Every structure is written in C-alpha cells, then in structure tokens.
Amino acid sequence: MNLNELLTVKQIKLELTSKTKEDVIIEMVKILDENNRLIDKDKYLQAVIDREKEFSTGIGMGIAIPHGKSSGVKEPALIFGRSVAGIDYESMDDEPAHLFFLIAVPEESSNEHLKILSQISRKLMHKELRDSLMKASNEQEVITLLNQ
Amino acid sequence: MRIVAVTSCPTGIAHTYMAAEALEMAAKEMGVDIKVETQGSVGAENQLTQADIKEARVVIIAADTNVSKDRFVGKTIIEVPVKEAIKDAKGLIERAKNINVENKNISEDLSSVKEEKSTEKKGPYKHLMTGVSYMIPFVAAGGILIAISFAFGILAFKEEGTLAAALMQIGGGSAFALMVPILAGFIAFSIADRPGLVPGMVGGMLATSLNAGFLGGIIAGFLAGYTVEFLKKTIKLPKSLAGLMPVIILPVLSSLVVGLVMVFVIGKPVSAINVAMATWLGNLSGTNSALLGIIIGLMMASDMGGPVNKAAYAFGVGTLVAGQTSMVMAAVMAAGITPPLGIALATVIAKNKFTSQEREAGKAVWALGAAFITEGAIPFAAADPFKVIPSTMVGAAVAGALSMVFKAGLAVPHGGIFVLLIPNAVTNVGLYAVSIVVGTIVTALMILALKKDINK
C-alpha cells in the first residue's frame, strides 16, 4: 500500500496543542489547508462538524477519525495528530482520545484513494498498531507504520 | 457456525470498514466463521453471495444507512447502528450465536426458492407476511377481550362505566381499530423500511374509517410502500437539505398521496359497493330461503369487515324485531362464526400449511370464532387471500344455507355460540349448532384442499 499521496511528513503533528474537541478539529483542518489540499476551508470544516453532529467519530480505544466528504476538498488527504495528554472527544467509551486521523475526501474521488483510507480504518482496529503509533518518535516512523 | 454481515455508514469512509474489521476480529477470536460485506463510498466490497446467505445462521446489519434486506428474505436479521459493531463486536456476535432462529426450515426454503424464481415474486408475499405477523397479536388481544366482555352479557358493554364496556373499548375500540393500520403500516415498512410506516398506517387507518376492511388495508400498505420507494428515488435534494427527507418531506408527501388515493379512488367505490349490496339484498326478500342463506354466507365471509360483509350484517340486523327471532340474522351469525372456527380447525388438522406463529394464533381464533368475532380469520385471509377467502366463503355459504333450511332463528344481533345457552334467544338450537359445525368442517376441508404446504 502506498500512502504517500495521501499523507506526507508535513501532515503529521505528534504534539497537538488543542485541549478541546472543537479546537483539535480546527487545528488539523488548518494543517490540511496549509498543505494546499483544500479549495474551501470553511466548507470542509462545516462538513466535518456536521458529520460529528450525527454521532461522534471518537470511536473509543483512544482514536478519533473526524472526516468529511465535501466539494471544498481539492484532493483526498489525511492528517495524523497525536495528543499524549489526551483530549475529551465525546468518545463512545468516554475515554480521552489520543490518536487523531482527519480524513478529507472530495465529492468525486478515485476508488484507489478511498480504498487506502478504508484500509487505514481497518488497521486502526488492531491494538498493536495503536500502541506503536503512541510510541512513534518521529513523523517518518508514523508513515512507515501505516504503510505496513 | 457461519454468520454474514453488512456494514455501512453515511460517508462510507471510515466507520463502515472499522465495523467490518471489528466484526472479523471478534469472530476470529470466538471461533465463528464470518463474511462481512462493506457498503462504503467505493461501493459494495466482499459481496455476499446467494450461497453465503443461505448457509448463514444469522445476518448482522450494522448500518446507519438504508441497507436493502431483499436478499435476506426469511433470514434472522440483527440490525444495529454501525457504531455498535465497533464498540461491542463481540457482544454482537454473541447475540448472533444465541438468538433463537425461528422457522429455520422455512427460511432455508425461502432462500432456495428465491434462487430459482425471480425476486419479484417473493417480494410482495414477504411484505404481506410481515404485515400479517405484526397484526396477529392485535387480533388476539382485541378479540379475546371482546369475548370476555360478551361473557358479562351480549349487550353488557352498552352500559357505560362497567367493566364490560371498558373491555369493549379496549378490545373493539382500540386493539381492533389498530389491526388494519398495523397490517398496512408493516407491509409498507417491509417494502420501504422506516419511512413506509407513516403512510402505511395512515392509509390503513383510512381503510378502516372508509369501511374498506383488511383488503383495503392491504392495498394501502402496498401503495404506501411503493410510493415511498418511488419518492426516495425521484426526489434529489442538495446535501444540506437531505436531513429533511425522512423527517418532513417523505412523511408529508407519501401520506398525502396514499391518503388521497384511499379517499377518492378506494373510498368511493367501497361505499358504492356497500350501498349496492344493501339495496340488492333488500330486493331479495321472498327469494328461496336456502339461496338467501347461501348469498348471505358468501357475503359475510368474503371481505370480513369490508363493504360486502358490512352490508350483509346490516341486512341481518335490520330484520330483527324486538322479542322475535329472525332466520336471516341466524344465518348471518352462523356465516360469521364459521370462517374463524374453520381456520382454527385447519391449523390443528393441517399443521404443515401454517407458520408456527399462525398455529399458535389458531388457538386464540377458536375463542374468537365462538364469540362471532369474524375478524379472527383476517390474518389468515390476509396472508393467503386467494386460497383462504374462497374456503371461508364456501364454508359460510353452507352454514348460512343450512341455518335457513333448518329454520333456525336468532333474536339478538351478536354473541356467538354463547347465545345458544340463553333461553329463547335461538330457535331450533340443535339444528342451528349442526349448521355451524358443518360449515366449520367444510371451511377447514376447503383450506386443506386449496392451501399449499408451507415448505413445498
């Protein structure tokens, strides 16, 4: 699997600064925008927030996967963020979230990209990967782990 | 043991796959064989085949979207929100292991039939059966409470404030009033899922208030289901307004369409039929009495609660003169008793022609028939109208004709076989009982001859 088109070292932040759910979404959307993946930042942000309203993407196990499919997205992309302290993300198990994957998908996108995203979602269900991601010491290591 | 599952979420990017993975992991750990189809933004992957579904004990649907259940006819389905599978996949598989899989033979049979025939043919029957299975408990609850009310005296319920009146209000005024709306609502639910329920129940309610009976309710149910399906396909809203679809747009539009059709297209002819039948019966006085008995019997047992039945019953009540017995009324009641009694008898002597739910319900139908609550026959007639209705009509015609020939008379408008015990309520009691018994047996034999075995 090749993640490189979706996730670059610049799209990884190992020490998120936000303390709340809303701030962490904004923080990560901003990184996405800085990496030139968005056409309309506000539109995409709204899509992510609307998605959260349906039910929180804090799926428990310390993971949150805010995501949005929006015409505000230029090309499919991923942001990985980590908060060692943890952020209350209204998760299903009421535990703080540590690993954040922000997923951006345009209205029309290639199946190949979607498949990569779906495979990452699947991988996250495995404890070994989550533990390794928590311990990763640099950005390249994260990419290597997800590429495995 | 094998389980199949379908996962799906609105965006189809993350949850669909996480749920699938969680289920696969849990199943592996618990030694269960599972195959999970994902319906995400890429489309369906790892698609379940006809053979997968046939072999599976249970189907798990973990989805927040509308996953079509057409493929799973006859299967035991556990349906949960997608997050439930992520949160507690093990618990879900545990449930699938322990759930009581009813009518296993039938379900296997249905799925094998489906492979051979077109899905079109299986669809409407399944929808009808869904409606009927939800309706049966209402019929039992209402019918038995009404029967208890009669135990206080045939007209005891007319005394306000009494227990008998309350029982009649609960059983007749409420449980029975819900019967056709529930039938129609769940037929539509089976076709169009949740959005079908509103127009289905509204249409069923109209079928009741327009006196269109359960046949009108079946029409309302199918009309509602397919109307919602059609609206879902044709109305395309921008994403920002999509939330309005299930809450406002579908319920309002579908109820409007179904309601107008029921009132103007179904309601008018129904009342015309009722009036025409009543007039026709009125002109029949003086005809050969056995022939009149046959006609009354056919009418009573045809649409059971619909316009034809109501015309016959009203005609019977109209012949009552205080303090005297009426031969017509006796024929009417005999013909209203034999459909449920005949069906109850059939469920005992021909077990393989009924589902297990129907066989259980059959026990209550004895009591309903005995109390002249013809409605007890409705779930059976609704489930298989082309076989059951002719049977009940022939049986009732025999009962009506015999009652007339024996010159049995009845002085009260209701009460079932319990009035046989009241002095002077019935003349020629013995022969009247014979006509009911014969009609019952004929009905049961007709069902035996016409109705197919359930697993053939």
Question: Any overview of this molecule?
Answer:
The complex is a heterodimer of chains A (148) and B (456). Chain A is an alpha/beta fold. Chain A has a single domain (9-147), classed as Mannitol-specific EII, Chain A, CATH 3.40.930.10. Helices cover 41% and strands 20% of the residues of chain A. Chain A is built from 5 helices and 6 strands, in the order E-H-H-E-E-E-E-E-H-H-H. In chain A, strands 1, 2, 3, 4, 5 and 6 form a 6-stranded mixed sheet that branches. Chain A is globular, with a radius of gyration of 14 Å. The mean pLDDT of chain A is 88. In chain B, the strands form 2 sheets. In chain B, strands 3-2-1-4-5 form a 5-stranded mixed sheet. Chain B has a two-stranded antiparallel sheet with strand order 6-7. Chain B starts with a strand and ends in a 6-residue tail after the last helix. The longest helix of chain B is centred in the middle third of the chain and has 39 residues, at 244-282. Chain B has helices spanning 15-29, 50-55, 82-87, 89-98, 104-116, 119-151, 163-192, 194-209, 213-234, 244-282, 289-300, 307-318, 327-349, 356-370, 378-383, 385-405, 429-450, and strands at residues 2-8, 33-40, 43-45, 58-63, 76-80, 409-410, 426-427. In chain B, strand 2 and strand 3 form a beta hairpin. Chain B folds into 3 domains: 2-116, Response regulator (Rossmann fold), CATH 3.40.50; 119-270, no CATH class; 284-456, no CATH class. Chain B contains 17 helices and 7 strands. The relative contact order of chain B is 0.08. Chain B is an alpha/beta fold and 456 residues long. In chain B, helix 8 packs parallel to helix 10 and helix 13 packs across helix 17. Chain B is 66% helix and 7% strand. At the A-B interface, strand 4, strand 6 and helix 3 of A face helix 1 and helix 3 of B.
